[in-house]
Design brief:
Strand order of the largest sheet: 1-2
CATH class: Mainly Alpha
Helix content: over 70%
CATH architecture: Orthogonal Bundle
Shape: globular
Distance between the termini: 13 Å
Strand content: under 5%
Number of helices: 6
Largest sheet: 2 strands, antiparallel
Radius of gyration: 16 Å
Number of strands: 2
Length: 174
């Protein structure tokens, strides 16, 4: 039913899966998230984390960055700003580096904590402050709530995905 690991179809399947995950990231980010001008809460991390666990850091970075770029171009929520795409790329790389080989609790906590506290809370707040001309400190206070919620949601969601990934890897379709 499935090809051997050395099958020439394997790279094509990885590209197809990456494309599906990019599309899923766009849908979850643009249509199934709670959005305010400086706060966003949703499940768009799921395809990025799946790409990280199944395909590695560069595929995860592609899912995050291309999902952000294409989502912003096709379904804009506000003005496009490349800093958010850079943050998405770094988020994908971080998840990929920490979760591709092993999905232990320390790695999950480091990946989610690092992406939320450093990239989302600090770096995205810098981008919002630059984009809208608002004070960083004022924005940071409001974004702390988003960060706290997403720390819990992403940690639990990533742990659930980590349990499901071994079954997907056994299928030998990647």
């Amino acid at each position: 039913m499935f090809s051997a690991p050395s099958s020439p179809r394997r790279p094509l399947r990885r590209v197809a899966l990456t494309g599906i995950l990019i599309a899923l990231e766009i849908v979850l980010s643009r249509f199934l998230s709670i959005n305010a001008w400086n706060i966003k809460i949703g499940f768009s991390f799921v395809p990025v984390v799946l790409a990280a666990m199944l395909l590695g850091p560069w595929a995860s970075a592609a899912v995050a960055a291309l999902g952000d770029l294409l989502g912003a171009l096709l379904f804009p929520i506000g003005p496009y700003f490349p800093g958010f795409t850079l943050t998405a790329l770094l988020t994908g790389l971080t998840f990929g580096w920490l979760l591709h080989e092993k999905q232990t609790w320390p790695r999950i906590l480091l990946a989610v904590g690092g992406t939320q506290l450093v990239l989302s809370l600090v770096l995205n707040t810098v981008w919002i402050a630059l984009l809208y001309g608002k004070a960083f400190e004022v924005l940071l206070a409001g974004r702390l709530v988003q960060c706290a919620v997403l720390l819990v949601v992403q940690t639990a969601g990533t742990a659930v995905l980590a349990k499901a990934v071994p079954a997907l890897r056994k299928k030998e379709w990647l």
